[in-house]
Each structure stands twice: as C-alpha cells, then as structure tokens.
Amino acid sequence: MLRSAVYRRKAAAITTAALVFLLTPLLTPLPLAAQDDPDRRLQAGAAASNITPPLGELIVGGWSPKPATHIHDELYARCLVLDDGRTRIGIVLADNVGIPSHVIEEAKRLTFERAGLRPEQLLIASTHTHSASTARGKNRYDESSPLDDYQRFLAGRIADGVQRAINNLQPAQIGWGSGSLPEQVFNRRWFMKPGADLTNPFGGVDKVQMNPGVGNPNLLKPAGPTDPEIRFLSVRTPEGRPIALLANYSLHYVGGVPTGHISADYFGVFAERMSRLLGADAQDPPFVAMMSNGTSGNINNINFAGGQAKLPPYGRMNVVANQVAGEVFRALQEIPYDDRVPLGMIQRELTLEARRPDEAMTARARDILARPEDAPQGHIRERTYAKRILQIVEAPPRVDIVLQAVRIGDLAITAIPFEVFVEMGLEIKEKSPFPDTCTISIANGAFGYLPTVHHHELGGYETWLGTNRVEVQAAPKIVSTMLAMLDELKPAGTASAAR
Q: By C-alpha distance, which of 329, 70, 361 is closest to 204?
C-alpha cells in the first residue's frame, strides 16, 4: 500500500481498530479493475467545512505576514466524495495559500479513523488564496514540527467535511466539460528590453522579470503561454438537482483584498455565483461548488501590456468570478450525464533532491544578515532570501512528495504538490491517454514553485532558491511519473500516453 513518508512516520498513531481496517481490503473499495462493470451506479455526496481562523491570526500571501483584523468572507474546505460501488474517492479544496504535507497527512489520518477513507483515496488541495491565515508553521521548510493550533483545527475540519460528504452520499449522475476564458489569464514572466534592471537577491542577473508592472516601457514579450481552458465536473441527482461542481482554471489568484482582511478570493466568489446560477443556494443537503487551482505558477490576472482599470477592493475578483461562472454555466448546458461512471485513483511517491546553497551563497547570506537592518541593500528582497538560505541549510537534503492521478470516466485529474508552471499542465493534457485531463496544483502538500528546466535557465522570482526548493530536473521527472500513472488508469483499449 502506498502512503507518504510522513504518513508512515505517523502510522503508530492510528488506533488498533483502524489498523485492522487498513489491512482488510474487503472493507474499503479497491482501485478500479481493467474491465469496467456497466451495472455499477454512482453515488455522490458533498459538504463544506468552515475553516476561518479567529481574528489576530497571521495572513500570508505578501512578503510580510499581517494579523487578521477583518473577515470579509468565510474560508471553507469544500469536499466531494464519489463512489461507483467499487471505488470511493474524495476531493477536498481548502481556502489556503498552501497547506504543508504534514498537516494534510494529519487530515487524512483523521479521515481514515472517522470515515474509513484511506489516505491514497483522498486528494486534498489548497486554492492558493493570498488572503487566508497561514498553515505553514514558523519554518516553511520544516515539516517535522508539532502542529500548531490552527493546523490542528484545519486538519480536523477537513476530516469533518469529508465525513459529512460521506454521510450525504446519494444516487447521482455525473458529467464533465470545458469552457474557455482567455481574457482573464496572463503570463506574468516577461522578457525585458536591454538595459532593464534584472538583478536578483543573490547578486546575479536574471533573463526575465516576474510582475514587471503594468505599462512598463521596458516590456518586450511574455516568457511563456497561458491555458484558457476551464475544465469542470458536474454532479447531480437522477432528478436533476445539483449536488456539486468542481472546476479547474489556471489562474494563480486575483487579489484586491485590503490589508488585514480574510477572504477566499475569487475561488469563494465563484462557488457562491455557481450556486445562484444553478438555483441551488438554499438546498438541503447544500450544493457545493468549488474552484481548483490549475497550473498557474507563472500565470496571473494582470494585463501588463494592455493596461488595467483600477477597481475598488474586491472588485476585480467579482468580475473574474462572474465571468468564469458564466462560462461554466454556458458550457454546462451542453454536457451529457451518466450514472455508470467508473472511478479509479492511484498514488505514487517520488523523492526529489533538495536544492542546496553553496558555501559562497551561504557566506553571503550570513554577511547580509550581520549588517544593520537599515543598511543599503543590493536588492529589495536581499534580507528575505538571506534568511531563507540559512533555513534551507538546515533542511533535509531530499524532499518526498505524493503524486495522485484520478479517473472519473474519460476525465483524468492529476494532482501535484507545487505551484506548477503552465507549460507542464499543457504537456500533460497533450500527452494524456484520456480525452479530457486537468491538473490540480498545490495538492497533498505545498513545496513551492515548480518551474520547467527552461525557466530555470531564465531565472526570475519563481526559480530563486527559497522560492523553489527542489532539483532543476523535478519538472520532467514529475511529468513522466504522472503520464505513467495515467497509463495505469486509462480505460481498456486506449492508447498509452505520448512521450
């Protein structure tokens, strides 16, 4: 049985009864066999757990955490459970910038104890709102520390949500489709004209700049593509009453949130808008809409070359959420539904080498931090990255990650615990053996940015050591592993993934 390294370390904490259950495969559905059974009927359940922290908790998303002074809208862990009579899977999307793997493992442990859903049957991802409280702890590179109060609360509420979704299981039909919204996604990494200052915090010079500023006269061209597709999965009762909707769009987040405000960003607004569009905002059990973060590591909502109107706080996220929800609603009218949809889910562990600072970089970091805080800096983020370098020196030399692949009929979902660059998502879609595929980022962990090898050569914020923490070859290794996993899940008679 595949479990993450962290889960193995915590296995002793599982109760004896739960351990017996873990070792008894007949009590929990097994992965889908190669031959689909046409007589199996789908069941589905959904629920949302409030994960809003108290005021005073630190909000992360900017360079300096700020205490929460106001809650504009509540944060949720939105949960969907599907069961085809043989395989049961769960998907959770939590309003957080990035939940570390040891917190997710605790949520999975609790879910298993309470509801019998094994860790490898549960996908837990963060939406990446930049206006939620931190779940990282004091050191983003240390995942061995005891959980703090909010981390324990978050893990418990996620487990509550999955258990409630299981309680809500009922006969269901499922359908999937996609729309397109190119006008709300922009590549945020730019080649600049000769002479532009591309100095980085380590004393070197990059070839591209992240977020160069709207209307910057030194703009040359974007350093990569975008992915305008909105992929979605719709679940309803046989009578047509909506149960849940899971969407996926490669947009980092929107923002426009005042300092100190807690907000789920456009992810939360999208969920509310879909409920209204479907007339499902007063249902019992409640309808649950959720938006996952696609491969948006180098994508945002800022039109650097074309200009951007200034809007009041929360204005832009409302515009984006309305357009995304409207496009999904339009495409929903065209999709067929079925109650005989085979499910499958597999999990693999992959060990990656951690990037390490060399002696010169470490010495430079110590020298920077030895200076007075108000001393002149060669780069505005010089001290920030000097602190990160010294934390990385003490971090483990390898990083164990969990990768998951989900099959829902002819739809495939891959799950990667990084802020994944859009090129990787496009490659997985192109080479997948499934006709419809999407990737959920920041899933089962939050290990920072995942640039491609080419983007490492270009430099820029997302590639800086301390922003990115794993080996340069991580992206191709992960893509290769994901495609092999999709091959294992593919329907009988389907061609293998292209390589």
A: 361
Nearest to 41 by CA among 236, 173, 234: 173
Given phi > 0 = left and psi -120 to 50 = alpha, else beta, which region is 438?
Answer: beta
Look up tokens 């987040």; give the residue.
253
* pLDDT tens digits, one per residue of 210-239: 999 999 999 999 999 999 999 999 999 999
Phi and psi at residue 432, in whole multiples of 5°?
-65, 145
Helix (H) or strand (E) holding 266: helix 265-277
Contact assessment for residue 135 and residue 98, using Cβ atoms and an 8 Å cutoff = yes
101-115 vs 149-167: helix crossing angle, rounded to 10: 40
The C-alpha atoms of residue 215 and residue 415 are separated, in whole angstroms, by 35
How far apart are the C-alpha atoms of 463 and 422, rounded to whole Å?
Answer: 14
Phi then psi dihedrals of residue 456, to 5 deg: -60, -35
Exposure string of 215-229, with b = 16+ CB inside 10 Å and e = fewer, is: ebebbbebbbebbbb
Angle ∠(210,213,217) on CA atoms, nearest 5 = 110
Strand residue runs (E) in 68-126: 70-71, 76-83, 88-94, 122-126
Closest CA to 141 of 456, 450, 387: 387
The Cα-based distances of 411 to 1, 135, 264, 455 in angstroms read: 24, 31, 27, 29
Whether the CB-CB separation of 320 and 183 falls below 8 Å is answered with no
Q: Which residues pair with 180 in a beta bridge?
A: 229
Counting beta carbons within 10 angstroms of the beta carbon of residue 355, is it exposed (0 to 12), middle (13 to 18) or buried (19 or more)?
buried
Buried b / exposed e over 312-331, threshold 16 CB at 10 Å, is eebebbbbbbebbbebbbeb
Per-residue model confidence as pLDDT tens digits over 348-379: 999 999 999 999 999 999 999 999 988 888 89
Higher per-residue pLDDT: 391 or 62: 391
Tokens of 152: 């324990």
Span 408-426, pLDDT tens digits: 999 999 999 999 999 999 9
Q: Rg of the chain's alpha carbons, rounded to an integer? A: 22
CA atoms within 13 A on the CB side of 427: 16
Residue 75 CA to residue 379 CA, distance in Å, equals 35
- Of 103, 231, 206, the closest CA to residue 457 belongs to 206
Percent of residues in the chain assigned helix, strand, coil, to nearest 5:
30, 25, 45
Pull the structure tokens for residue 159.
């487990």
